[in-house]
Inverse folding.
């Protein structure tokens, strides 16, 4: 165990860039969604992508996980030879295997049991026997509190459990970077809180870097230590940094209005 | 860890991989402590040793008092280590052997705590296998309740039709127009093509037989009566089942899965009026029209074969057709196609609305709509043919 991993909190960990986005412009055909995005996600960050509805948060996520090609600009991942779209396809595929993605609705495959959902990525990519894979699948389900639900189908469990099962699948391959698309959408406050705690726990124990798209203020302040704020009006980012710091120091009325649910703007 | 080998311990590194990669050894101390030392790179990529050997060592009497872990030279780990440890720890707990996790890296301890935080729900596999009799009974009950649902659906559709005639049914005119366009104009080309080919085939088969008796000209009778009375409506019905009935089931099934149908119900709009009625009307109106085109296409196909194989001129062929075919034949075919339209629309909509809420359920609904549609078309043909024979139509 390298000792650098054991230092937690306290800010003694040197910030090493995990994802570097430079000059990113996102577009669907001719219509530009966001332009000139520049930000860095550091190793072991919980990085929040925030902004109003329709500001392009999910589109940015699609770019970060390689589902969509940028119109301009590059996305560079630590430990790779070039930007995502510039590197040779085999390397890109290897990189993709280090990602885990939790989709908004869970996106579990409905014809498979939870254990089979989690086991599929392992069967595809891990060099393990069937027995090991089933033990791994059970472990991942246990980590998200779904121990004993191996033989359930996605249609038989609740929304919160679907999210957690989706997370178990996202973690199947021990990813370096976990991406979450609106993790607390559609969850009751307690389940949302539990999911937030789980995200923190996973960051601290798996040493993963986590990128979260959300507009839940409680989650943003509870787990985020770095962020980027997208503004749909000006079609670019208007702030970045620690959300709590943004709340304390930002002068931008749009950022303040968002982070205080409009109360700050009402006062000013 | 003392290099894995010492005079007293029973080192068993029964793993096939080289020692410097994954290192597992264990030894018993004099005070009943089992020391498990883990070293090297414990990642899935390198291969993780099976926990069996360690578990056997723990089970070997006399039972150790406690198990401690040493990970001083552990270079790296991932979920593989966790599954290994979970297996060992759960066996320890079963045997009542104390286990000390302090020697494990902090991340591992946190994950183990997380994995065991929520008690496992009892496996339900145990209660799963059902006796054959129960399964047969269950299937029979399901069939019976499905039959009841079908009857209820037909009843609702009839009520909805009554509301339509009373001008109380609510649906959007544009839905009706769209459905008319989809099952009318857009189906025309495939219906015409298939029936043209069927007419060709019928004439071809008939021509070979009739030529032996010098009765070539009766090919026109065969094709005309065959197409008009039965084949054109059946072929059209089957094509429309595959094309439109399936799409109805998929549309409504997806709407059900998205909760759109519930949204209509909560607004007090009967889905039967809003969704089923326009589709039912559209098919009921368009099927006879499609069938008319199918009749023409079939006769045209017969004419082509008669002209090229039997040297019967088009005028001769049409005259003979006119001779043979009565208006009743045409009307019987058109009536049948209207009945098929109702059947296809009802089976498609029924399967869609009664579909489950998942992707596979929508698929099943579509399959079952097509199968039920075709079966009901064939059964209806048999019934109508028998009745028309009795009535002398």
């Amino acid at each position: 165990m390298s000792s650098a991993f054991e230092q937690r909190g306290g800010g003694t960990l040197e910030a090493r860039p995990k994802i570097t986005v430079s000059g990113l412009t996102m577009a669907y055909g001719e219509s530009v969604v966001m332009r000139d995005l520049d930000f860095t996600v550091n190793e072991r960050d919980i990085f929040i992508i925030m902004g109003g509805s329709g500001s392009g948060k999910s589109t940015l996520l699609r770019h970060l996980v390689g589902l969509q090609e940028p119109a301009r600009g590059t996305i560079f991942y630590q430990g790779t030879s070039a930007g995502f779209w510039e590197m040779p396809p085999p390397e890109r595929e290897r990189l993709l295997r280090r990602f885990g993605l939790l989709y908004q609705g869970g996106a579990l495959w409905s014809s498979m049991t939870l254990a089979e959902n989690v086991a599929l990525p392992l069967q595809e990519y891990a060099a393990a026997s069937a027995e090991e894979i089933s033990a791994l699948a059970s472990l991942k389900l246990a980590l998200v509190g779904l121990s004993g639900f191996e033989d359930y189908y996605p249609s038989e469990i609740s929304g919160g459990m679907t999210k957690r099962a989706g997370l178990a699948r996202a973690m199947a391959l021990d990813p370096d970077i976990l991406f979450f698309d609106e993790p607390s959408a559609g969850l009751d406050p307690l389940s949302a809180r539990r999911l937030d705690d789980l995200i923190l726990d996973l960051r601290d124990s798996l040493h993963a870097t986590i990128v979260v798209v959300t507009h839940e203020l409680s989650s943003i302040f509870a787990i985020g230590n770095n962020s980027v704020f997208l503004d749909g009006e000006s079609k670019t980012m208007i702030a970045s940094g620690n959300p709590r710091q943004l709340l304390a120091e930002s002068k931008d009325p749009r950022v303040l209005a968002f982070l205080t649910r409009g109360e700050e703007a009402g006062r000013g | 860890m003392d290099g894995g080998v010492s005079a007293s311990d029973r080192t068993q590194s029964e793993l096939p991989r080289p020692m410097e990669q994954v290192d597992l050894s264990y030894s018993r101390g004099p005070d009943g402590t089992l020391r498990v030392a883990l070293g090297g790179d414990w990642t899935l990529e390198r291969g993780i040793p099976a926990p069996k050997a360690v578990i056997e060592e723990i089970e070997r009497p006399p039972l150790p008092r406690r198990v401690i872990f040493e990970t001083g030279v552990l270079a790296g780990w991932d979920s593989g280590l966790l599954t290994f440890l979970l297996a060992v720890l759960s066996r320890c707990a079963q045997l009542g052997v104390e286990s000390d996790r302090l020697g494990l890296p902090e991340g591992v301890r946190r994950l183990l705590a997380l994995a065991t935080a929520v008690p496992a729900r009892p496996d339900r596999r145990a209660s799963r296998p059902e006796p054959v009799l129960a399964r047969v009974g269950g299937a029979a009950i399901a069939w019976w309740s499905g039959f009841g649902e079908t009857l209820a659906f037909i009843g609702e559709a009839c009520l909805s039709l009554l509301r339509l005639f009373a001008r109380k049914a609510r649906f959007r005119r544009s839905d009706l127009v769209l459905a008319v366009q989809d099952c009318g104009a857009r189906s025309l080309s495939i219906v015409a093509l298939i029936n043209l080919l069927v007419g060709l085939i019928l004439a071809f088969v008939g021509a070979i037989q009739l030529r032996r008796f010098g009765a070539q000209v009766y090919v026109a009778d065969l094709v005309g009566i065959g197409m008009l009375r039965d084949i054109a409506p059946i072929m059209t019905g089957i094509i429309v089942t595959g094309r439109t009935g399936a799409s109805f089931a998929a549309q409504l099934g997806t709407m059900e899965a998205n909760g759109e149908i519930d949204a209509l119900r909560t607004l007090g709009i009967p889905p039967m009026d809003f969704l089923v009625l326009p589709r039912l009307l559209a098919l009921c109106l368009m099927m006879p029209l499609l069938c008319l085109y199918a009749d023409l296409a079939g006769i045209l196909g017969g004419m082509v074969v008669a002209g090229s194989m039997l040297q019967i001129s088009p005028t001769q062929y049409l005259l003979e057709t006119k001779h043979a075919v009565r208006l009743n034949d045409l009307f019987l075919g058109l009536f049948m196609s209207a009945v098929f339209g109702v059947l296809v629309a009802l089976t498609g909509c029924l399967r869609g609305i009664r579909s489950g809420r998942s992707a596979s359920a929508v698929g099943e609904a579509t399959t079952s709509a097509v199968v039920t549609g075709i079966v009901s078309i064939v059964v209806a043909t048999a019934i109508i043919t028998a009745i028309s024979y009795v009535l002398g139509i």
About this structure: Chain B touches chain A through 40 residues (CB under 8 Å). The first strand of chain B starts at residue 22 and ends at 28. DSSP finds twelve helices and five strands in chain B.
